[in-house]
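Model it.
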Amino acid sequence: MSDEQWFFCLKHHTVEGADGCRASDRLGPYPDKATAARALEIAKERTEAEDESDREWNERGSTR
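Modeled.
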């Protein structure tokens, strides 16, 4: 396994290594280029899952 980290640049819509754009302009780190390339899809999936969790919580209340 590599210690290399990959990021998705929101400014350029490209995958880049650690020496890329500034942190505020990118998502990551990700373990490999392929995962970094899916960064926007991953973020969308996570947001949708959290939105669903919020809807469920609002409907039935907290179970924690």
